[in-house]
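Q: Predict the bound structure with flavin-adenine dinucleotide.
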Amino acid sequence: MNVIKAGYEILTPISEGGIEELQRIERAARVCYKSEDRITPDGESAKKMVAMLIKNGHEAMIEHSSLSVLFTCDRGVSHEIVRHRLASFGQESTRYVNYANDKFGNQISVIDIADGMSNDSKVSKLDSESTLSVYTEWLHAMKDAQSHYLKMIKLGATPQIARSVLPTSTKTNIIVTANYREWRHFFKLRTAEAAHPQMREIAIPLCRELKEKIPIVFDDIEC
Ligand SMILES: Cc1cc2nc3c(=O)[nH]c(=O)nc-3n(C[C@H](O)[C@H](O)[C@H](O)COP(=O)(O)OP(=O)(O)OC[C@H]3O[C@@H](n4cnc5c(N)ncnc54)[C@H](O)[C@@H]3O)c2cc1C
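A: Predicted complex:
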């Protein structure tokens, strides 16, 4: 059994300083005001325009730039991700993928809960012995699930039938494509303290990276 860390990869190339992405938004917004003549090539006019759009809640213009991200997370987190109806998705299929194949090392992959545990407000306060016991119990359950999955396949079950015993921790890959307005909404909900710790584990670093790479758009989001 493979125990791996959650993560993400930004698939959409982002221009130097994020200027082209801002200029796309600016171009759309200036059509509204017929102020295309005020576009400056250095991107400064785009920065001011995008800041103004966000301040005034004219966020429809922010929809003109978008981003695809490949997440590696567990099936529980991916189930939360797909609730964001304005995004588009492509996800690893447990119906067609057979983890009993050599290609997957004849094993299932699960997302480690260690970071999620240390970011959970209650679990993080357990003493080290209890923490280890919780983690060990989880590990046993994962191994049991794997053993039943492989046995079912060996007995003739198809992956789509055997998947019934796969745990919530099963690793998945999911591609999410959304415009910046939807990403802003996603980050507001999914980096907040109320969000699931394993969701925050991927949403917070992604939000921070985008803040560094693209000016203005995500600046007002605390993540
Ligand atoms: C902390 C937390 C706990 C949660 N707990 C639960 C739970 O216990 N049970 C549960 O079922 N879900 C739960 N959810 C999921 C939640 O209900 C939403 O499905 C999810 O957060 C997506 O949010 P959204 O609908 O605002 O976003 P999106 O689907 O991304 O939509 C973005 C925005 O578009 C607009 N929009 C989209 N579709 C419509 C529509 N049909 N009509 C009108 N406006 C629309 C809304 O303004 C919406 O905010 C939880 C979410 C969070 C963050």
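A: The pocket of flavin-adenine dinucleotide is lined by residues 83-86, 182, 185, 189, 194-195 (CB under 6 Å).
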